[in-house]
Design goal:
This protein is of the alpha/beta class. It is 53% helix and 11% strand.
């Protein structure tokens, strides 16, 4: 509860135990076994920071923090606690707090998104469970995308980049070394598995602008940003990687603030052990550095977990404000955890810290806050104050109403698919397909033209051969005709010659016959009178013609 300018958290027999606002950015720890009251402690602290005008972020892993947007309800048990604390109506009142619901899966809150580029290869490799070699390949893919000006915003952009690098492996090998296709294929398989877990809804735009968490309502109360994590916590790697990304993003965007009268924002990381489980050494070093330096930017980080042993020593040493609920010690390992938790407090001679850890009831805790000089107070055993808002979930209809009435709903409610690597490669693919089709069509036309040219050449050859053959035929016919003409002329000439010869022969024969007849007439007349004349004429004519025929060859 925010009281007299401090975060009043607990009561030790009438003495108020409070976190000083100017020391609230020195981080803190809320620890304890299951069922000891950690969630109530977290809720009281978040309400108090909100009332002090400090924005808050927290993860609701059980679904029972949504009621912070509604006033608490009086019960007999709660009224007894208020009486025990001496809380009057003038000091304590049931009230609602400004709440903004968020959800990575966009089901029970405003869609909380980031881009693949903003997540970066290191955290993304952790999220996908990649090997060291695969992580190196992924880092090179990111670098290629940066150098070629390609936006990698969502999972389909990353898949396009991976396929592009795989297809052009030889081109990049000279500059970056061999990029094994087996590694790229493994990354693609892990990416598909990640999409099945809902990453396709987490990666995209509009990406979260963390500045939107630094808001207050019209009364000056800090906005309590609640990440719905009932489903998310079932995927510890996604949950922890998101938290690590958010912390890194916060560190990068926040300017140095130095010593502040109050934090600019307070983050509660529930199930904090998940942040550190299986984290690579390099990531752990970066995380420790961020936690150490982010307080100078006015940000307080409070880890919520079962045992202080869940937090690495390098981080645990930076947590100045501690609330430790009961720890059970049934095994040697648990006894060591209790001893470690007890040893982390400044000793109070009034009780045995280690013994007290096993005796704390529900709602009780060992508490040590930083004093005005930044020195941890002596550990105190105290009771945590009750929350002022509703403890528990709210109906889904109320949640939907709260979400739709948020001023940020119009900004984050609808996903935007901006032109990025996927669209670039789709255009390139279409352009390549068009060029291939045009080349194929050009080649087909060229083949058709070549084929037509060949056909034309063959046709020309056929026509040329036919023309030559026809010319030869005509030449033969002409030669034959000429020959026939020559033969005809020769025949005509021969006929004329024969006719002439016959004519001459006939004339000669006639003349010879006449001459022979005249001679025969004279001879026959002298021999035989008129009879002799006729006979001699006939014989003379016949002899004359015979002799002339013999002379002319008939």
């Amino acid at each position: 509860m925010f009281y007299n300018g401090t975060i009043w958290m607990a009561d030790d027999h009438g003495e108020k135990l409070s976190i000083r606002l100017r020391m609230a950015n020195r981080h803190g720890l809320i620890a304890g076994a299951t069922g000891t009251g950690k969630t109530v402690t977290l809720k009281v602290m978040a309400e108090s920071f909100s009332a002090a005008g400090v924005p808050v972020f927290l993860a609701d892993v059980k679904g029972d923090l949504a009621g912070m947007c509604r006033p608490g309800q009086s019960t007999d048990g709660l009224e007894r606690r208020l009486h025990d604390f001496g809380l009057s109506e003038a000091v304590f009142s049931y009230q609602a707090y400004p709440v903004c619901f968020w959800d990575i899966f966009a089901e029970k809150g405003l869609p909380l998104r980031t881009t693949i580029s903003e997540m970066g290869p290191t955290l993304l490799a952790r999220l996908m469970g990649l090997t060291e070699t695969q992580t190196d390949v992924l880092s090179i893919v990111f670098r290629i995308a940066d150098e070629e000006g390609l936006l990698v915003l969502d999972t389909k952009d990353l898949r396009s980049m991976l396929n592009y690098v795989s297809d052009n492996n030889k081109e990049y090998a000279a500059m970056y070394g061999n990029l094994p296709k087996q590694s790229i294929n493994s990354i693609l398989r892990n990416l598909s598995a990640l999409e099945e877990q809902g990453a396709d809804r987490f990666f995209g735009e509009p990406a979260l602008d963390i500045h939107d968490w630094f808001r207050t309502d019209y009364q000056g109360k800090g906005m309590i940003n609640i990440l719905h994590s009932e489903s998310l916590i079932n995927n510890p790697m996604m949950y922890s990687t998101f938290m690590l990304w958010m912390l890194s993003e916060l560190f990068e965007i926040m300017p140095e603030a130095g010593d502040c009268d109050r934090p600019k924002m307070v983050f509660f990381f529930d199930e904090a052990h998940l942040l550190f489980d299986d984290a690579p050494k390099a990531l752990m070093q970066k995380l420790e550095q961020v936690i150490k330096l982010v307080r100078s930017k006015g940000v307080g980080i409070y880890f919520v977990t079962q045992s202080p042993r869940d937090i690495p020593d390098g981080v645990l040493a930076q947590l100045g404000n501690k609330i430790q609920h009961a720890l059970h010690a049934y095994t040697p390992s648990e006894q060591k955890a209790v001893k470690a938790a007890a040893d982390s407090f400044r000793v109070n001679p009034a009780f045995d810290t280690r013994e007290a850890l096993g005796q704390l009831g529900i709602g009780e805790a060992l508490i040590s806050f930083l004093d005005d000089n930044g020195i941890p107070d002596m550990v105190r055993r105290a009771r945590i104050l009750p929350p002022q808002s509703l403890m528990g979930p709210i109906p889904d209809s109320d949640r939907r109403s709260e979400i739709q009435n948020q001023v940020l709903y119009s900004k984050y409610g609808t996903m935007i698919d901006r032109d990025s690597a996927y669209e670039f490669f789709q255009r390139k693919l279409k352009q390549d397909e068009l060029e291939i089709r045009q080349r194929q069509e050009s080649e087909a036309r060229q083949k058709e033209e070549e084929q037509a040219a060949k056909e034309a050449a063959r046709e020309a050859q056929r026509q040329e051969k036919a023309a030559a053959k026809e010319a030869q035929r005509k030449a033969r016919e002409e030669a034959k005709a000429l020959e026939q003409q020559e033969k005809a002329k020769a025949r005509e000439k021969e006929a004329a010659k024969r006719a002439k010869k016959r004519a001459v022969t006939n004339v000669a024969k006639t003349a010879a016959g006449t001459i022979g007849r005249e001679v025969g007439n004279e001879i026959g007349k002298n021999v035989g009178g008129s009879f002799g004349k006729r006979l001699g004429g006939n014989i003379g004519a016949s002899l004359g013609r015979g002799l002339l025929g013999t002379f002319f060859g008939k």
